Amino acid sequence: MQISPGAAGTADGARRSRAPARRPTLARAPGACRICGDATAFGYGLCLSCRAVALALGRPLVPVTAIRVVSPESGLYRALRQYKSGEPSVAHRQEQRLTAILDAFCRRHLPALAPGGLDLSVVVPSARAQRPPPHPLARVVASAAHLPPHRDVLGAGPGMADHRQPALDAYQADPCVAGKRVLVVDDVYTSGAHLQSAAATLHDAGAASVVALVIGRYDRGARSERSGAGRRRRWPAAPQGSG
Ligand SMILES: [Zn+2]
User: Fold this and answer.
1) E-strand stretches of the chain
2) Total structural domains in the chain?
3) Is the pLDDT of residue 182 over 90?
4) Is this structure's pTM higher than 0.90?
């Protein structure tokens, strides 16, 4: 079952920055990428990153719903960095914040995203394997009451996905996902290489359907626009592990 795309959201921290507030919506804006909701060049249905990832992966991509659009100025961007690598009390607080955001979104929108229901949730494993399990995102997903049960059925594979470079062997799925309707969750969507590699792995393992949800879609347009306007200013890198 293919789920209609939903996406786009609000630049978090609008009260603290001058970014205009945009409410989350499940509808794509006109001209938005059919997969991730980012802006596209005129005449294209997919953005540059999604075209590159689809070409490298050699198969159609899974539409992705993003709860928010994040930029380096936003509070949610900080949360998405700190919940994995911040000082323990800060990481814990940010983890709770992300759980609340994810749970509230799923309570309201998950029935529309997956009208046939979902059997389980998985998270995209960390691209960097130094962190012992469980992944902090797995705790976030497991703590969110309105998500399907979290199952640790997706692990790192021998390959490596990177920015705009998906890899079918970057992940491996437990055979128990066969026939299951799976919600795959990631924290940050940048090019989609990691999440789309994970979704492809789940499909190859026989999942009946894969619905993709991310907490934040990185605002690629804002970064390139600003870096072009002010070359002397250094912008922070995308949150670690995003791709
Ligand atoms: Zn896209």
Assistant:
1) 64-70, 120-123, 154-156, 171-173, 181-189, 209-218
2) 1
3) yes
4) no
